[in-house]
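Sequence in, structure out. Go.
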Amino acid sequence: MKSGPGDMDMAMDGRFARIPPVMLALSKVLWILNFILISIILALALFPSILVMRWVFTIYDGLTPHWMLDILLLSFTFGLSYCLFGVCLMLVSASFKRFLDIFGGVKEGEYPYYSFFAGHWCLVNGVVLLNRIFISEVTRTTFLLELFYRMMGMKIGKRAILNSTYIYDPDLVEIGDDVTIGGDAVIMAHIGEKGVLKLKRTVIGNGVDIGQSAVIMLGVRIGDHAQVGALSLVTKETVIGPYEIWGGVPARRIGSARSGR
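Output:
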């Protein structure tokens, strides 16, 4: 019988064969737990907004003599409620993250996919993704996005500009002073290889510019005042020296910001 690519991968390292059948079975139903957690987080975040909307609806009848003003009032109420929901979602998410940290935060190391540490990591990044879907995109470059990432455990210096919501692993990402993160740049401190989740701190120094849609992978260290060009891919554990300019896929040194070349 002919084997497929999946069979070849399993034969190479047998990582799935080493996983207890019970763990594999549980992994197929954990989405139910995820849905429950998402429902709880959203319910708590929606609570203040629904209170505001309910109060407005109680005084809605006959509030104004003109139907156009009524529509404007309701539209403003929905918009205000959405913004209130977004702020509350950030606060609830940060509180949930603090609760998870009671059982141990996300730390550098290598962990099997089917492990407590990998599950913890999935929940933290899942909360980050949930905020991106509902509110983070409209808070780019504002103090709200910076505040959210700080509350999620990221170290961010003064006067940083975050124009991207594709920043993962907040516990393991450090951003210095006067850093500019270009639009849709990806910054991560994780990678999955051969059934193992690898986590390693990613550090961006002071005065660094990250170009639009650049990708900064785990373990990368970028020195002060360095620059990474748009659409560049900085591969894992790369070290970029101070004032160096890097670009390309994969990224390599192409100049010096100090000399202007």
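Check: The two ends are 59 Å apart (CA to CA). DSSP finds six helices and 17 strands in the chain.
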